[in-house]
Amino acid sequence: MRTAVFWRETTERAVKSAAQALLGLWPLDQFNILNADPRLAGGIAAGAAVLSILTSLASTAIGSTSSPSVVE
To answer: Which domain of life is it from (predicted)?
Structure first.
């Protein structure tokens, strides 16, 4: 958990999760990309990123301590 590789992989996972959360908003009727509330979208993306980071940290207790993955 104290390696640069761990944090690079964790950051990559967090960015992907944030992007997926934003893409998940598109099918909603209330979410129009042209009239989107940036605070709402940013909050949802940030929440997904934080949850991803917490999941990566929790995974070190199960899998390898040098990887955010459970299966490595």
So the answer is: Bacteria
